[in-house]
Amino acid sequence: MGFAERNGFVKEKTVQVDEIDRSLRNRLYNMVHRFSESSPMIHEELEYVVDRLGYQVESTTNRNWYIINTVLEGKDSSIPWYMPYEVIELFFEAKRLHCKECEYRSDNSCEYCGYTEWFRNVTTDINIMLEQEKSGYRLLNDKFVNIISDEELQEINKIIDSPYQAVKIHINKALALYSDRKKPDYENSIKESISAVESLCCIITGATGSQATLGSTLKKLEKDGGVVIHGAMKTAFEKLYGYTSDSDGIRHGGIDFTNAPAEDAKYMLVSCSAFINYLIEKQSKIKS
After folding, report:
1. Which end of the chain is more exposed for a tag (fewer CB within 10 A), N or C?
2. What CA–CA distance (Å, rounded) separates 107 from 270?
3. Same domain, residue pair 129 and 258
4. Which domain holds residue 128?
């Protein structure tokens, strides 16, 4: 909070969810230029972003920047307020496409690649700015999501950085479905969150086939995986599994849950992420 807000000379900002004020817009603009202009692939990235925005790609870098700046500035009333967020997500997409073409992508070199560090650092810088400007969104795994606390972000990020590919796939899907501003799918986001827990439990217990369900593997964690969890916690997740799997639950497409609210999807995403990290830590102690 700045001097003017602290001393009551200007009204304190409220969280910006369905709009962005001029200060936030300007800082999003500045952020795009700060992290993009020095990119060695800027020409290709600009072409990608301009094309994905639905504009005609120009032959020069300056002309393509002009198009993007017009969108970022939002001076044309026909440009929706949220477009700066869209532009940043598209720049991240463009950089990820470059990463996919990397000759080292099949081994562990990605962990030490400069781009990996770039994604982490820029994400951190953007989120600091969003917090300062009281934006209702945070950048997580290249997507802007409805505001989540730092602690919740850390739980989800731990999984994204974990070695369990199947678990990461489900959490990434849950996150993408939850954070889709145009057409959020909270019902399927919840399915993916609980499936992520199920995947890890199957990995720990070695369960396959008909036994590869969360209900079964939770009961086998101690016997087959050596992971001892408190009975009350196990019961709580068994009930969560029931919420998604019984005859009226989300996994069976029950009518009561076809319009699952955002808060349910967020709760499941964060809770399942925290439980996964808890199980990973428990298992690591057994291995060590």
Report:
1. C
2. 30
3. no
4. 1-12+19-135
